[in-house]
Hints:
Layout: E1 2-4, E2 8-10, H1 14-22, E3 35-42, E4 45-50, E5 56-64, E6 68-73, E7 80-90, E8 93-102, H2 106-128
Antiparallel strand pairs: 1-8, 2-8, 3-4, 4-5, 5-6, 6-7, 7-8
Organism: Jejudonia soesokkakensis
Protein name: SRPBCC family protein
Amino acid sequence: MELNSKRVTVNKSAQELCDFLADVKNFEHLMPETIAKFEVIRDNAFVFALQGMPEIALELKEVNAPNEVILGAISDKLDFTLSADIEVIDDETCEAQLDFEGQFNMMMKMMIKGPITKFLEALSTNMAAL
Length: 130
């Protein structure tokens, strides 16, 4: 299953946004208002929960500065990645899009598609406001 957020303009250089996203504690600033929990559990990992949803633990998997930051689920039960694709516009502005990719059975896809889509939109909207 692949889901993509809208592409947003961010008033930061591509390198600044890449550095921001590579520091997992900064994801707390991007979380939607429905966040029930956010906790950094290691230098490169955090756990979060949205109201009515189970906890999800993510860790930083790869940084290809300044164009890509990839996070992945820590649990094997939910195998997915969340990638930020960053494009340079100029020295002070970039565009970014969040991509969610995971392997799920049909029932799980039906259950999570709506909440994950809303989650990606909230993250991208909050990223645009940085």
